[in-house]
Design a protein that fits this description.
This protein is α+β, with helices and mostly antiparallel strands. The protein is 28% helix and 24% strand.
């Protein structure tokens, strides 16, 4: 009876443990895996005891693809140096690829290599061709109270990012050709200086486009150049093909005074060139809000025919009147006006207004906005997004009669 009680299984939900037998095949697999792991460890240990010096040697054959001339990209330093050396040895030797002609209106126009010093530089055409080195003129400015703090630097469209980093794509979109820049120290104020940047573009229109794109709406108009303004620490303006930035290191009165003197010097010395800016010159001056002038290269007012359009805002009869203008051949202007008229008729309401001085005019209500558009000869323009269409019409009539020039 005592023996039976001793061997009695546990009560409740508890069961006695029974060991599951492991098949022989699983035991063999475990042994094989352990042997393999041990073998790998031994192999790694033995391999690590011996250093192979060829493991980190450069395979010269893999660089063969980079030894040919670079096409359509900036040349390497070695290639550029070699070209410069060859041109020095034989200045009359003809070049297989002629240099890209640069604008001659500005000393900066023939300068295009980053990090070059005075009198040195390189130029490379922006496109599919590489061009040899071309010397650039250093930025020499003689003003009492300041002296050069560093050599003149030159950059082209391809390496402009080295100087202005993330802003370079915008300049490239406006076909920048070169940047010439230099820093001038204020002699009586240690640590104070003024930076001068001169960006040369392929046309006055592109120079104005970049200038207007970066315009500070809080800037104040200058009294020495039309396309210019100044802020707390700098002067910014377009002169000919060049967009100029004069930036002071601080707001010390002497530093600011010298920065303004530098700005006036560059506005005076750089050649004037307004070719392509006929529309800009047509903008009336009476009531003009200077900081509002801007440039639209294409698709102005959503119209493919409106290209190279200048826009400005005016203070007129207590209202802010946005105004645009385009200069073109008479037949192109007339065609663009007719297409604009038809577009407004299709999507809005149009009223033909009486002619003024031979100009055709229409007003339109389009997408909840009011417009008054005219055409005369090779000139097309109008007001847009006006809150009071009658004042917009009055502005156009005043302009066409020459009353707000």
């Amino acid at each position: 009876m005592a023996l039976l009680q001793k061997n009695k299984p546990p009560g409740g939900n508890r069961h006695s443990f029974v060991r599951t037998p492991i098949p022989v095949s699983e035991n063999l697999i475990c042994v094989v895996l352990l042997v393999i792991i041990a073998a790998i460890g031994v192999a790694i240990f033995l391999k690590g005891r011996h250093f192979d010096p060829d493991r980190f040697n450069v395979k010269v054959s893999s660089l063969n693809s980079t030894s040919s001339s670079v096409v359509g990209k900036s040349q390497t330093i070695a290639a550029t140096t070699e070209i410069e050396s060859d041109s020095t040895k034989d200045s009359t030797k003809s070049q297989t690829t002629p240099p890209r002609p640069m604008p001659t209106e500005s000393p900066a126009a023939s300068t295009e290599t980053g990090g070059a010093t005075d009198g040195e530089g390189g130029v490379e055409g922006v496109g599919a061709r590489s061009t040899p080195m071309v010397k650039g003129e250093p930025l020499e400015i003689v003003l009492e109270g300041m002296k050069p703090m560093s050599p003149t630097e030159f950059y082209n469209a391809d390496n402009l990012y080295e100087k202005i980093d993330g802003r370079s794509p915008a300049y490239q979109n406006f076909h920048v050709q070169a940047l010439r820049c230099r820093t001038f120290a204020v002699t009586s104020l240690p640590g104070s200086f003024v930076d001068v940047y001169e960006y040369t573009f392929d046309s006055a229109v592109d120079a104005f486009g970049m200038f207007s794109l970066e315009r500070d709406p809080k800037g104040k108009p200058t009294d020495f150049i039309a396309d210019g303004y100044y802020g707390d620490m700098g002067w910014f303006f377009r002169r000919g093909l060049v967009y100029v930035q004069i930036i002071a290191s601080d707001q010390n009165l002497q530093t600011i005074t010298l920065a303004e003197a530098l700005a006036r010097n560059r506005a005076r010395e750089l050649p004037e060139n307004d070719h392509g800016l006929e529309g800009r010159l047509m903008l009336p001056t009476k009531g003009l809000i200077p900081q509002s002038v801007s440039f639209i290269p294409d698709n102005a007012q959503g119209q493919a025919e409106l290209r190279d359009v200048f826009v400005a805002a005016y203070s007129f009869d207590g209202e802010r009147i946005p105004f645009f203008i385009m200069a073109a051949k008479p037949d192109e202007a007339s065609r663009a006006w007719k297409l604009f008229h038809d577009f407004c008729m299709r999507f809005g309401k149009v009223e033909d207004l009486p002619d003024v001085k031979g100009s055709k005019i229409f007003s339109a209500q389009l997408f909840g906005k009011s417009k008054v558009v005219y055409v005369r000869g090779g000139e097309l323009g109008g007001v847009f997004d006006v809150s009071d269409v009658n004042k917009g019409q009055a502005f156009i009539e005043h302009y066409l009669r020459g009353e707000n020039k």
